[in-house]
Amino acid sequence: MQIEVKDLTGSKVGTVDLPAEIFEAPINKDLMHQALQRQLANARLGTHNTRSRGDVAGGGRKPFKQKGTGHARQGSTRAPHWKGGGKVHTPHSRDYTQAMPRQMRRGALRSALSVKAGDNQIVVVNDFLLTEAKTSAVAKALKALGAERSALVLLPEKNDAVARCVENMDKAKTLNARYLNVRDLLGYDTVVMPLAALDVIKTYLGQEVA
After folding, report:
1. Is the full-model pTM beyond 0.70?
2. Alpha carbon distance 71, 75 (integer Å)
3. Domain extents for the chain?
4. CATH-assigned architecture of domain 2-44+96-205
5. Which residues sit opposite 194 in a β-bridge?
6. What is the pLDDT along the chain (210 residues), one digit of tens a residue?
């Protein structure tokens, strides 16, 4: 697949071939869904917790005698139906982490990139270097590239100046190309990809896994 390479003014400066094994891979929706669910699950802290009757202080003494009161027998004031008692069937701390083989994770990324490429939602630029580190400059560049609705800007390496400018925008995000993920790929309308970031992606997605 061959697409145009643009500069930050939106002008064509050349063309580039996108590797077919990455950007024209078979689209596996189930695999993308599994990768997305895994990513969302792994982001959960799992620190929620409630106290059961064994965790609530007190209640060690029988509240009243077994017989002769006219009330139902009770063994503890910390039973779930008592005020101040423990809770039942409520959340407890747990680990939500899900495992997924690397081959499947990379297959999901190829599918997601193929979806974006098929919908013409990938814009390749020669570089993403700003003449002035201002949010207005980034907004102007994204508008010129047709990515004003929402944009994921991939960076080949850490760039604090660009990251700070993009952070001020509601519908744009920067991401190191080494940390490409399905959630961000599908969460933005347009992927802005410098040539150097494309080279990074090729290093780990370029070879089809048998």
Report:
1. yes
2. 12
3. 2-44+96-205
4. 3-Layer(aba) Sandwich (3.40)
5. 125
6. 899 999 999 999 999 999 999 999 999 999 999 999 999 999 999 999 999 999 999 988 999 999 999 999 999 999 999 999 999 999 999 999 999 999 999 999 999 999 999 999 999 999 998 888 899 999 999 999 999 899 999 999 999 999 999 999 989 999 999 999 999 999 999 999 999 999 999 999 986 544
Q: What is the 3-state secondary structure of the chain?
A: CEEEEECCCCCEEEEEECCHHHHCCCCCHHHHHHHHHHHHHHCCCCCCCCCCCCCCCCCCCCCCCCCCCCCCCCCCCCCCCCCCCCCCCCCCCCCCCCCCCHHHHHHHHHHHHHHHHHCCCEEEECCCCCCCCCHHHHHHHHHHCCCCCCEEEEECCCCHHHHHHHHCCCCEEEEEHHHCCHHHHHHCCEEEEEHHHHHHHHHHHCCCCC
Q: Which amino acid is at 22?
A: I
For 77-95, b/e burial (b = at least 16 CB within 10 A) is: bbeeeeeebbeeeeeeeee
Place of tokens 């039942």: 88
